[in-house]
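User: I'll paste a sequence; please echo it back and then give the predicted structure.

Assistant: Echoing your sequence first, then the prediction.
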Amino acid sequence: MKRLYLWTLSLAARKSAEVWLAVIAFVESSFFLIPADVLFVPMAVATPQRAYRLALIATIFSTLGGIAGYFLGYYAFEALARPVLEFYGKLDAFQQIRACAGPDTTAILLVTSGLAHLPPIKVVTILAGVVHVGLAFFIISCVIARGARFFALAWLLRSYGDTIRLFIERRLKLVAAAAAAALIVLYFAVKVFAGSGAMLSC
């Protein structure tokens, strides 16, 4: 795992770094273990004037990778998606989430995974395909949630450079998770006051 992380990090120094960012953002969303942020952050620190371009690349290819994961879940769960989840030790967690995956929970998971990798993006993209979430809704949610993460990172790194890097590497996931949790609480508060449904459908 550490070697894989260091290899991914080393890609930022290559001339083909933007291509590798697109590749990692794509495969992260369907089967790869290391998040694209590992590559995106040092690239944006090194070339802050290109941070928004890098955020756009990461958002586009993360969404395309999400669509690939969606189709894995929709058309090839037993043949392809299940072995991927078993390989990463995520199958039990996936089955637990799947048992409770109603429209509300799936929509929320798309937001939390995009903002804070909670749960991992690959798990949620496959789940969305398995439970047949509408493809248009899925794509829009990916663009909004993942775009928000990458462009927020780009703004921070353009504005504060390497001084903010340590905070991002150590604390950003916690901050993003707190923001996602606040969105969830707000959403269900509205649902409760509107007199509709429970959080889980299982």
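The two ends are 34 Å apart (CA to CA). Confidence is low (pLDDT under 50) at residues 196-202.
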